[in-house]
# Entry
Amino acid sequence: MEIISAAVMLFLIMDPLGNLPVMLSILRHIEPKRRRIIMIRELFIALVILLAFLFGGQKMLNFLHVSTETVSISGGIILFLIAIRMIFPTPGGVTGLAAGEEPFIVPMAIPMIAGPSVLASLLLLSNQEPGRVGDWVIAVLLAWGATFVILMFYEVFNRLLGEKGLKAVERLMGLLLIMISTQMFLDGIRKFFQLGA
# Structure
């Protein structure tokens, strides 16, 4: 796989446009100036996790005796719970955080940016062609950079959609997220039984 192809694949899996309404919902009760700082912090945490997983993900999973199928199943469960909160909002929002409380690492850095699908894809790339880790680093940086730019211009989307529009998109994305999380869960189950067989 070429660097650009790998970067496009990772970007599509990260899905910054799809995650945008969720992130705006998470940051809704936080002051606008602080939102950008939180977004940048979470993006950089996600980048560190992505690169760490690219270089040492398989070793870490082997050490913990955790399979990639387990990563997929657990990620699916987390996303499913977030999706339920998006469709049926609670006072704490999609994360269960109190109004004004900042998210930290979960759920923005993980699993929204550095999600199980992205981490599994990085494992696949590094295992298939271990001699091209440098190329995969460039691909990660390109995908992450495009995600960074989109998320930094969240205010444009906020103005275009308005509060009611964002709520509608949030519920729609919740429905889509349920489908994605269920598929992620089923993929993990299928791979688990295929390996077991």
